[in-house]
Structures are given as C-alpha cells and as structure tokens.
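Sample log: Biosynthetic peptidoglycan transglycosylase.
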Amino acid sequence: MIRALRRLLWRTALIAAAAALLAVCVFAVFDPPVTRTMAEERRRLGQIEHAWVPLEEVAPVMRRSVVAAEDANFCLHWGFDLAAIRAAIDAGATRGASTITQQTVKNVYLWQGRSWTRKALEALLTPLVELIWSKRRILEVYLNVAEFGEGVFGVRAAAMKYFGVAAADLTPRQAALLAAVLPAPRSRSPVAPDAATRRRAAAIMDGAETIRRDGRSACFEDDTGKS
C-alpha cells in the first residue's frame, strides 16, 4: 500500500514537472494569448485593451524605465534578487522584492493575490523560466502582459490609450509615467498623476539613465540578437 502510494506520488510529481517544463518551453517561442488576469477582467468589464508588440518595437527608454522601476538588477540575477529580499526583510516586508521574472511567472502561469501555494509555485517556475528564456524574452513578455490601468494590458495598448503614440515613440517622461503606475495600475494614472506618482516618475527617469550608464541594461538593449 505504502509502496503503491509512493509510486503514485512519484508519477504525479514527474507529470507535473513535465507539464511545467512544456509550458515554459512553449511560451519561450510562442506569445501567451491571454493571462488569467486578462480573462477575469474581460469577464468583469466586457472587453480589455491589449495588443502584442515585439521588444524591438518598444522604445529602449521604456524598457529601461520598467526595469529601473521594478527590478534594477534584472540583468544581474537568476530570477531572485537576494539583496532586494534582504532589504524587504529589513524594512519589515513593507516593500516588495519580486523581480520582473517572478512577476512574469505570476502573470503568465499563476494568479494574483497572496498565498503560500502561489509563492511556492512561483519559486519553482522562476528558475526554470530564467534557464530557458532569454532576458530579452522575459522582458518582452512582461511588457506585453503587465496591467497599466483598468482593462489596459501591455505597453502597446497603454502607449496608445494614454499618449496616442506607438510603443516605439514613447518619450522618457511618458515611459517613466507608465512605469510609475505598475505597482498599483488601477489606482494610479499616467495622464493625471498625483504628487507621489510624479515623484516616482522623476526617480524612474533618473534610474533609467543610471542603468544605461552603468551597464545594467546590457542584457536587453541589443536588438541585433539574443542577449
């Protein structure tokens, strides 16, 4: 009985691991058509705004702004920023420490909200995504599935809705304002920013320039090949 149970658990674990590997490999090549959050918002609102855009058609300053805002050491870690985690612990967990890779895993494969189950799955999938996807692919998917406002998903839809421009034509200030709303896209506005959002956008503009100068944007800046 115990031996049979062990075999069942082992087979279940192998099937789950194979399914996870397949899912990660598929989206390394094919664009995720929809996320769970998008589907939920479409049911709630009736429709959403979303259109995929390749990374090379996103303004470099937009890429840098998002990385500066959400994960300045994106090019330096393997999915988890240990320094940010330690800082979050020191701050009493009042600040987030999720990397762009972790957020991408959550958005594409899992669900929103806090739970130990989701965190455990996120911790298992994040290194797998880092192993199989390039940094450019991770950032591309993140920029296309992130929520920038109620019913607005992806940088292409956000750039057009809020500023009437293509993602490739975003200015440094516009890019910073879009990045500034990411922690709370349903309560912050890039076109009518409050004082806190304006301050955050100003800091993001400085941060985007800093990571350009010090080389921390190198892994996703080269449009001529995989970085």
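Observation: Strands lie at 49-50, 147-149, 152-153.
Observation: The longest strand covers residues 147-149.
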